[in-house]
Amino acid sequence: MIQKTENSRAAEQQSSSKNYWSTGLLSTVCYMLSTFLIALLFLGACDKKAPLSKAAPAKAAKEAALKSDEAKGAKTEEETYTYDRKGKRDPFVSLVVTAVEKPKKGQTPLENYDVSAIKILGIVWTEKGNFATVVLPDGKAYTLREGMTIGLHEGKIQAINKNNIVIRERIKDYKGQLKSKETILKLREGEEE
After folding, report:
1. Is residue 146 a part of any domain in this protein?
2. Domain-embedded: residue 135
């Protein structure tokens, strides 16, 4: 019976040590202790500083002054460069032109929308000339004739053909100069010429 109690005590000690390791408490304590010791080692090493001599910066300044004097004596001729901007654009001006002024409200509703937003309903040929019926983005329909002004950029209708309308607009480019832009509105959008 005594042997059973000694064996049971040994078994209890082993099981308690297994529980202690299985919780990971001992490994966490060891990890924290080693981290603390390494941190102390680094902090102790950083605390020692080499003594600075006050004469070292003064010597370095004197040597630099001597070298600069020698360099000035050796270079009597300096190179100069002048920039000729004739025929070149200003590199500091943005290539993207922003609309400084708001588009003005047109005299007719046809002048309040961009040409690309207008859709053709149909084209009519008569002896008096060709006419086109278009729909604006607001859903209203209008009849166009050659020579009318249309679009935000004061485009003129150059021609009304049997399958398309040719419009010429004056648009500012990235330099601010007015350029002609020809836009063709097709009766059927997927149609090629």
Report:
1. yes
2. yes
What gap in Å lies between CA 40 and CA 38, rounded to an integer? Answer: 5
Number of domains in the chain: 1
Q: Does any domain span residue 144?
A: yes
CB atoms within 10 A of CB 167: 24
**Structural domain for 168, as ranges:** 109-186
Residue 140 lies in a domain: yes
The beta-strand segments (E) located in the chain are 119-125, 130-135, 141-144, 149-150, 155-160, 164-172, 178-186
User: What is the number of H-type helices and E-type strands within the chain?
Assistant: 3, 7
Q: How far apart are CA 190 and CA 183, in angstroms?
A: 15
The pLDDT tens digits for 168-185 are 998 888 777 888 899 898
Output the six-digit token pair for 192.
């090629």
Instruction: Give pTM, 2 decimals.
Output: 0.45
Residues 61-80 have pLDDT tens digits of 667 766 666 655 555 567 78
The domain that holds 128 is classified in CATH as: 2.30.30.830
CB 89 within 8 A of CB 104: no
Average pLDDT over the chain reads 76
